[in-house]
């Protein structure tokens, strides 16, 4: 069983309140997701984030294949971190930790995603040629979009 990790950090010249208010609002996921993925929240984004929140959405990550994804916010500590875990979706495991902390002149955002692919050896073979490049592309888009919205550090 192979579990992969994606680890990204980004600094933004904004207050921790601004960062938290943006990042902890599920409706903003659409803003920081590439348009070709046709990200659409079906339910669960009608309240500010809380532990136990279930968010359902449709996303088209590759080859035009629509995928329903259900995540649960399992942990949330105001202005520090939150964790979302996939309950149903394309991964065998998806555990995404979002940390924010104040630094000189802004905030540091850190994403740590532990994930496992389905389909055993076939999933492992697809990882370096399909899955990892796609995740890198999505998080590069997110970095660029956040810099467009809030400025570069």
Task: Based on the model shown, name its key terms.
7-stranded antiparallel sheet; Alpha-D-Glucose-1,6-Bisphosphate, Chain A, domain 4; alpha+beta; single chain; about 150 residues; globular
Structure explained in plain terms:
By secondary structure, the protein is α+β, with helices and mostly antiparallel strands. The chain has one domain (4-150): Alpha-D-Glucose-1,6-Bisphosphate, Chain A, domain 4 (2-Layer Sandwich), CATH 3.30.530.20. The protein has 2 helices and 7 strands; from the N terminus they run E-H-E-E-E-E-E-E-H. The protein has helices spanning 16-23, 120-150, and strands spanning 4-12, 40-43, 54-59, 67-77, 81-88, 93-103, 106-116. A hairpin with a 3-residue loop joins strand 4 (67-77) and strand 5 (81-88). It is globular, with a radius of gyration of 15 Å. It starts with a strand and ends with a helix. InterPro entries: START-like_dom_sf. This is SRPBCC family protein. It comes from Postechiella marina.
